[in-house]
Design brief:
It is built from 14 helices and 14 strands. The two termini are 19 Å apart. It has two domains: 238 residues, 3-Layer(aba) Sandwich (Peroxisomal Thiolase, Chain A, domain 1), CATH 3.40.47.10; 149 residues, 3-Layer(aba) Sandwich (Peroxisomal Thiolase, Chain A, domain 1), CATH 3.40.47. The protein has 406 residues and is α/β, with parallel strands linked by helices. Helix 3 packs parallel to helix 7 and helix 8 packs across helix 14. The longest helix has 17 residues.
């Protein structure tokens, strides 16, 4: 029995590189950095004062005051990205399609701005009360629930929380549901708004943060940079998309998911390589069919070394021929939203025939001996590509995309 093919018909982003797809892609291909000094929160108590923040996001331009009372920043990002993706897809969810559409969004930490503000009031100002909608704003499923309500999506709706793999797991589950016929379409992706004082102090304590720039795969890299944002993809069965004459942006062909079952923070070559192999197997791709990999690429020594070794294991002799880039070098690590932003990058890379660069690359590292598309975007045909996410907790998820060829 032939599997249902699943295609992408809509993309939306809210990111440090732009608040919609065209600006986002222009910045990516120009190698422009969205990382800079933090201005959206006080930094007096912080040792790390840079991030991939979205300083030009104006909530009042997107929501009325009544809505804003119910929305943490991470839900605001998700709704704006979802509006873009649904508009591009041209889908109407009236009638049966609303009940045949899944809403699956990932987030690693949920409404942290609400939590931070509440704790400040309780412990810093000795307040006796917090905002009456504190719980509906901070719960991790808030963004997905708000998206389902905004579009009248009454099919399966839930959140996925698997740290930095959250969005990739969410998209992978949505893909599987469409492919199986459980639903006809899905609105899926991830969102995060994690630039708060409390969050940054927690990441500082791990001693994995760079004070100046994210330099994935470069020998002198010195850590990750936190980011924020959202990306949403509209997935639907190829049959449904064709029947309505939809523009098809790309095809999602496979997913691989594994657990290291080892260390809570240290990555595993075995877990990562198995997820890569499973994604290719699921998509029916041989190693030589893949031209590009959007790497997890956090800019930490352990992650970049491990990912390089995992790619060697999974791709063998083909590994040196891959173009590999880390988009986190440009917009930071958006935790639970990272995989969604990077999935959007991967779809655009295939569609436009351009591998975005890994910026801030200064010197080769023998431990990261693959082609990381240093500093300058590369025009090249991309038949198929992977998007990697490897999370704390030893949770790995990889998506396989391919150029849509009818």
């Amino acid at each position: 029995m032939a599997m249902t093919r699943v295609v992408v018909t809509g993309l939306g982003v809210v990111s440090p590189l732009g608040l919609e797809i065209s600006g986002f892609w222009d910045a990516l291909t120009a190698g422009r950095s969205g990382v800079g000094p933090i201005t959206i929160i006080p930094t007096e108590r912080l040792a790390i004062r840079i991030a991939g923040q979205i300083a030009d996001f104006n909530p009042q331009a997107h929501f009325d005051s009544r809505q804003l009372g119910l929305l943490d920043r991470f839900s605001q990002f998700a709704l704006v990205a979802a509006r873009q993706a649904v508009a591009q897809s041209g889908l109407s969810f009236a009638g049966e399609l609303g009940s045949r559409t899944a809403t699956i969004l990932g987030s690693g930490v949920g409404g942290l701005n609400t939590a931070d503000e509440s704790f400040q009031r309780l412990y810093g100002q000795n307040a006796q009360r917090v905002h009456p909608f504190t719980i509906p704003r901070l719960m991790i499923n808030a963004a997905g629930s708000q998206v389902s309500m905004a579009f009248g999506l009454t099919g399966p709706a839930f959140a996925v929380a698997s740290a930095c793999a959250s969005a990739t797991h969410a998209i992978g589950l949505a893909f599987q549901m469409v492919r199986s016929g459980a639903v006809t379409a899905a609105v899926t992706g991830g969102t995060e708004a994690c630039i708060t004082v409390g969050t940054l102090k927690g990441w500082e304590a791990l001693r994995v943060m760079s004070p100046d720039a994210c330099r994935p795969f470069s020998r002198n890299r010195n850590g990750m940079v936190l980011g924020e944002g959202a990306a949403v993809l509209v997935l639907e069965s190829l049959e449904h998309a064709r029947a309505r004459g939809a523009e098809i942006l790309g095809e999602i062909a496979g997913v691989g998911m594994t657990a290291d079952a080892g260390d809570i923070t240290a990555p595993s070559v075995d877990g990562a390589s198995r997820a890569i192999l499973l994604a290719m197997q699921d998509a029916g791709l041989a190693p030589e069919d893949v031209d590009y990999v959007n790497a997890h690429g956090t800019g930490t020594a352990a992650n970049d070394n491990t990912e390089t070794r995992a790619l060697h294991v999974a791709f063998g002799a083909h590994a040196p021929k891959l173009a590999i880039s880390s988009s986190k070098s440009m917009f930071g690590h958006a935790l639970g939203a990272a995989g969604a932003l990077e999935a959007a990058v991967t779809v655009l890379a295939i569609r436009n025939g351009v591998a975005p660069p890994t910026i801030n690359y200064q010197e080769p590292d023998p431990a990261c001996d693959l082609d990381c598309v240093p500093n300058t975007a590369r025009a090249m045909p991309i038949r198929a590509a992977l998007s990697n996410s490897f999370a704390f907790g030893g949770l790995n998820a990889v998506l396989a995309f391919r150029r849509f060829g009818g």
